[in-house]
Amino acid sequence: MSGAARPRGVLALLARVLGALTDAALAVSALGVLVSLALIAWSVVMRYVFNRAPVWVDDVVGFMLVGIVMLAAAQALRRGEHIGVDLLTGRLSPRQRRWADAWSALASLAVSLILLVNGWQSAMFSRSPGSSASSPRARSRFPCTC
User: What's the whole-model pTM score?
Assistant: First the structure.
């Protein structure tokens, strides 16, 4: 935070907690990349050496990729390295840029909440008795109920 006043009190504590959470999320994301790499390598060996391709690896790696991106995005957003439109924000005054950053943070929060709520509802619906997603493989392909 060069050039800006350092937060004190509750804000400093919140900044440290969020920093620790995003660092942990990034570590989990990196671990997910390694696990995905190992699963894909194992799948290739099983397919081409033993002619016994595991059918579940592609689905698991696909879902892991979503988690990897979401977990790593938190750190990128915190560092200010997330995708932005510099063509527009580069022409703003510092005050206007702070407002744009605040709106961006609120939009990110809104999208995150929507994804969280709809993801939870989809997961609970697919786990409910009598749903058409009765097997684990079918459950993984059940469409979103959003």
Answer: 0.61
